[in-house]
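tool=predict chain=A
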Amino acid sequence: MVPVAFLVSVAVFMLIHLTPGDPAVIILGESYTPQAAAQIRQQLGLDRPLPEQYLVFANRVVHGDLGRSLRTNLPVTTAIGERLPATLELGLAALIWSVIVAIPLGTLAALRRGKALDVIASAFTVAGVSVPNFVLGIALILVLGLAFRLLPTSGYAAFSVDPGQNLRRLIMPALALGTAGAAINMRFTRSSMIDVLRQDYIRTARAKGADWLRVVNRHALKNALIPVVTVVGLQVGAILEGALVTETVFSWPGVGKLAVDSIFSKDYTIVQGIVLLSALSYMLANLVVDLVYAYLDPRITYS
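tool=predict ok
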């Protein structure tokens, strides 16, 4: 994780500095003068060589300082921290939706291979992967929000203030963000289950008279989940990435929408902090996946 984090920080730092635009111009706005801009660049350290700027940046990041927003002058950690709970709520709901649909449906499709249920599940997989989340989001707004008036089309309500309104506003963004993941997880579950059901130990358990439901739940499904856990782990890391579009479509006040707003307003420090957070979430998700492997399959050990 350490070398990956270093490479990501270098890439983010360089990309931000290669982006067109002058932070001094953004900060000063209409009060811009060459003298004031030069003073701002000196205060921000932008007049130093790039390697020196990176060392200062890396030292601050290690100590938890991601700088300040160019628009609001708030600390980047504060700006992201205010939006992070909404994104985590949306991401968790999308992840739950993708798992509770994928694993049962994928298992049933494997058990009923070639039957009508398998065909329906395969069609769901193709549709879920093919339709972008912003297209699905707009379709949900048109159908559930405008045509049938079942759910609010946008906005956010805190769970602590109004739990009912929070859940109603959460449903459509979670469906839009989690459907592609559900389709992928279902496909992996089906394929993995088909492979596991062909193994000798499954046939041995059946030959000993073990109940079929017990064989599937206790033996087949647990081993079949290893590749699924890998995919789910990547999806956990990709929550921020998917939230960029989904939160914008539904006006969900999370980190994704903050990133989009910051890109348009050229608030580079906020964008830099969000990209680093996204990379960290990927790395932590992969670490957790590696640890879960050993639980699912005792033959896997780390030494």
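The chain has a mean pLDDT of 89. Residues 76-111 form the longest helix (36 residues).
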